Amino acid sequence: MQDDLVALSPFENHRRQLMASAMAAALVPWAQPAHAASAELEGVELEETITAYGQKLVLNGAAVRKRGYFKADVTALYLPEKRTTPDAIFKLNGIRRIQLNLLREFTSSTISRIFIADFKQNSTDAEFKQLINEISQVGAAYSAVKRVSKGDVVNLDWLPGKGWMCAINGKQLMIDPGVAGGSSSHAINNELAYQIYLRMYIGPAAPEELRNGLLGLTRLPRSTGGGRDSKDKDGDA
User: Fold this and answer.
1) Which of 11, 78, 82, 174 is most deeply packed, by most CB within 10 A?
2) Do 198 and 128 fall into the same domain?
3) φ/ψ bin of 68: left (φ > 0), alpha (ψ from -120 to 50), beta (otherwise)
4) What CATH number does the domain containing 117 carry?
5) What are 165-204's pLDDT values in tens digits?
């Protein structure tokens, strides 16, 4: 009987080995990398995806924002889906997030002064006058913070149906009810105000390096630290 068996050809052996390898790979999917690589700038690891207010957002781009000679923060832009032009981002429906990962300390007075100067630079005279109440509300909210420090994370979000919201290290800021006759709230429900805020980062007056980074036109250094889909502490507020 043994003499009647035909030995397997080298081709048949190779085919069977490939089939066995494919079956083994199918049975152990956990052998693949558990998490996609995240981006990293100035030692700040940026998640490729996050969950905010119950919605998944993707990292559109990031860059280091500077003030004079100093690096102020690592700015990241998160969107429901990636966009590469300012106009497409302005028209995008859904949540939009500017995340500031601070690289140095700022006092509330410095934050307010920088915000007002940048807001005025990126708005027309008519827009600035139209939004004077909202500008005052933002200034009052910043004043309540006193200061922010290196390592703090500031999220400035547009949430449809609610408005412009700000959270520092997961704690949302309250809008001063005494400003502009408003009532106590976490949000400023004025999309034009947030659109102008976005212009500060991706508009024509924004530094080219910052704008290109947030538009995803600049390749980001990758981190091997294992970025993962995360849910923010303020995500469902």
Assistant:
1) 78
2) yes
3) left
4) 3.50.70.10
5) 999 999 988 776 454 444 557 799 999 999 999 999 999 9
